[in-house]
Design a protein that fits this description.
Elements: H1 5-31, H2 39-48, H3 67-85, H4 96-120, E1 124-125, E2 128-129, H5 131-135, H6 137-155, H7 165-193, H8 200-226, H9 230-257, H10 260-263, H11 269-272, H12 278-286, H13 289-300, H14 307-319, H15 322-344, H16 352-369
Antiparallel strand pairs: 1-2
Helix pairs in contact: 1-3, 1-4, 1-16, 2-6, 3-4, 3-8, 3-16, 4-6, 4-7, 4-8, 7-8, 8-9, 9-15, 9-16, 12-15, 13-14, 15-16
Bound molecules: geranyl diphosphate (GPP).
Family: Belongs to the FPP/GGPP synthase family.
Keywords: Magnesium, Metal-binding, Transferase
GO molecular function: metal ion binding; prenyltransferase activity
């Protein structure tokens, strides 16, 4: 994903704190094992996170976007971390309350990616060999499991950082429920590959679980750490859900219509891969009988799609006005996200900290929205 400079600066603000908290969480657990034979186990986690190379040698780190934990910290600020910030001893010390939850979110995300790469048989992620590709499937499954355990373990760090017991327990239940939802989404996604009867609404439900649930969870957990006001928590959770769906649909739109320069990969790549993403599902629902037959024939073949077939598919997408549908849908999600944030903004009580966080979250929406024009 190529990020705009405004989005980059919004993401950058918390990147260093999240990165440091992630590293110290992993180091604490790895350092406590007492046996050198386990260094390579935690080394695999570090490899997946981009900190070391395949020989477990420190590498010039290219930290991921840390989008989800940043979302958690922004929701925390937006929801009322300012109350704590007022008494904070240093400008950033109020963040401490939320950092363990931010780490838990990022580790949860990465454990699902480790397992996803195995399930999809993907040999590369972020331009590097995947974990299973280097260390084999059994060890990669185990490292993914360990990272899930570490994510849950990390969350309880909130108890050492002033978070009340009832809130900590609730955070745990929201995170666990979300992992279940992500796995439900993944189940649906995999099962859809074998089916020809997937509707747009089934697809939207699936991405709501697989992709948006963790963004909603991040925003909801951040809000829960910042306030006890249920309507604020719900609004930020809705924002997370809407932007999560929008991120996925943006990906779907770019996967079909972005130019190669915009995408950095093959144009219409999702068509060539026969990916059942939103555009194709919309076209299947709206094509006339002749076009439907062409689509079904092309999509049921096992042989690689050639450029003539891809052109035919693109022509059907044009006849079904699928691009306009996707763009309108994307705009609607962005609108929902903006409205949720506006409902959180209260000019009479908001401080500069929460206004800045809301501003940064709006930058995220603007970034997603650009694919709608
Ligand atoms: C329970 C599990 C394993 C869930 C996987 C969740 C997930 C978001 C996978 C990545 O999705 P993707 O396949 O659409 O993205 P990518 O292109 O990054 O693989």
């Amino acid at each position: 994903m190529v990020l705009s400079t405004t989005l980059q600066s919004a993401l950058l603000r918390h990147q260093r704190s999240i990165d440091a908290a992630l590293r110290s969480t992993l180091q604490k657990v790895a350092g406590a094992t007492g046996i050198a034979a386990l260094d390579a186990y935690y080394g695999q986690m570090q490899y997946h996170l981009g900190w070391v190379d395949a020989n477990l040698i420190l590498t010039r780190s290219n930290p991921g976007k840390l989008l989800r934990p940043t979302l958690l910290l922004l929701a925390y600020e937006a929801a009322g971390a300012w109350e704590l910030a007022k008494d904070a001893t240093s400008p950033e010390s109020y963040l401490q309350r939320a950092l363990s939850a931010a780490v838990a979110i990022e580790l949860t995300h990465n454990f699902t990616l480790i397992h996803d790469d195995i399930e999809d048989g993907d040999t590369e992620r972020r331009h590097r060999p995947t974990l299973w590709n280097i260390w084999g499937v059994p060890q990669a499954i185990n490292t993914g499991d360990g990272m899930f355990g570490l994510a849950r373990f990390a969350l309880w760090g909130v108890l050492e950082n002033g978070v009340e017991g009832d809130i900590a327990a609730h955070l745990g239940s929201v995170l666990d429920r979300t992992v279940l939802e992500i796995a439900e989404g993944q189940y649906l996604d995999i099962s859809f590959e074998q089916r020809q009867d997937i509707s747009v609404s089934m697809y939207l439900d699936m991405i709501g679980r697989k992709t948006a649930a963790l963004m909603r969870c991040a925003a909801e957990m951040g809000a829960m750490l910042g306030t006890r006001d249920q309507s604020t928590i719900q609004r930020l959770a809705s924002f997370g859900q809407a932007i999560g769906i929008a991120f996925q649909v943006r990906d779907d739109v770019l996967g079909v219509w972005a130019t190669s320069e915009e995408l950095g990969k093959t144009q219409a790549g999702d068509i060539y891969r026969r990916k059942k993403s939103l555009p194709i599902l919309h076209a299947l629902e709206h094509a006339n009988s002749q076009d439907l037959q062409i689509l079904q024939t092309i999509y049921s073949q096992e042989t690689p799609m050639d450029s003539e077939q891809a052109t035919q598919v693109l022509a059907i997408l044009a006849r079904t006005q699928t691009q306009a549908y996707c763009r309108t849908f994307l705009q609607q999600q962005c609108q929902t996200a903006y409205e949720a944030l506006d409902a959180v903004s209260d000019p009479t009580t908001n401080t500069s900290l929460s206004s800045r966080a809301i501003g940064d979250m709006k930058v995220m929406i603007q970034f997603v929205e650009t694919a709608a024009y």
